[in-house]
Amino acid sequence: MAVCEIVTIGTELLLGEIHDTNSRFIARSLRDIGVDLYRLTTVGDNQQRITATLLEALIRSDIVITTGGLGPTVDDPTRQAVANVFNVSLVYKEELWQEIVDRFAHYNRTPTENNRRQAYIPGNSIAISNPVGTAPAFYVELGGKTLISLPGVPREMEYLMNNFVVNYLKQRYDLRDEIILPWVIHTVSKGESAIDEIIGEMESLSNPTVGLLAKPGQTDIRVTAKAQSAAEAETMMEPVLQEIREKLKDFIYGENETTLEQAVAELLNQSHTRLSIIESGTNGEIFGKLKTHIPEGQITGDNVDIVFSGETLNLLLHEYQAQKNADMVLGVILSSENSDPHVRIALLSNGQVTEVNRLYGGPSGDALTWATNYALDMIRWTFIK
Predict the structure, then answer these.
(1) Architecture (CATH level 2) of domain 3-172
(2) How far is CA 369 from CA 61, 140, 188, 274, 362, in A?
(3) Model confidence pLDDT, tens digit, residues 182-206
(4) What pTM value is reported for the model?
């Protein structure tokens, strides 16, 4: 069983200036060939720290894949850090320089002398041709260990993963077309600890595995199987998935790519329910999420800046029902109470108003998502009841 770590390199990642999409792509590529990914590390453009990080990773794992730090500037230190790891010097490769020159010529440009840095790779490494960029990649083999350094530019990294790395790893580690297949069950209205109380024993399974991921107002349950084929993985997972479905029942709103707004919209569409929404403090988030899934004329929404009292909100619900000819009216007010986010939700359906007042104790930045999910789930439960 081959174990891998990913090391993303770049101070811009640590500063939050760019979003790391490379790790996600590499992780999914490894998953599809049955390679277990145990760690993901991000390190800035510091040669000493990169060297230390790679040394630690190689002790733990069979495969280490790096992205970034292969550019032509002084703050692109990955090449030298890898050379430090293996105690070798950087070696100039004329053929790599010619590839760089040819690549620039393709765009009627001439490389600067700085670009020559990219033709240097660790002396014990093997170059990986990069026909879609100017940064040559490389890999090093030492016993059963492999270190692969890829460019940080997503388009280049993805090309090299698809056209070299995946096949190379399959051959080097005799990966017999194993895959790691995940399946996600989405729940709402129950927190992570409550879900754990119900299915905690299943989280000790080894293949398939069961894990929880908490989100504002939601908890995802991820079931993952490792097998020779997708069909075999699905067969392995099915009894586990069925047990989860039986234990959580109505708290499940969907699976895999299904979103909560899609699940709610489907219920509204199937019943031809006309919905009107009043929002304050949410910038129209709930209406915005639902309107793309519901036919025009079946849903209306107003975003207002005034914070209503509960009594006023209830009066508005009945007024909107009459004005909009709505079957259901949802009112949501998100405000701050002593600096803590506070949500008031009222739902008018079948002549009855259901109202909820809640303080949100999580990170303030997640309050809008939490309030939106809570409100959408109130609509969903109306149909379940």
Answers:
(1) 3-Layer(aba) Sandwich (3.40)
(2) 37, 45, 12, 24, 11
(3) 999 999 988 899 999 999 999 999 9
(4) 0.73
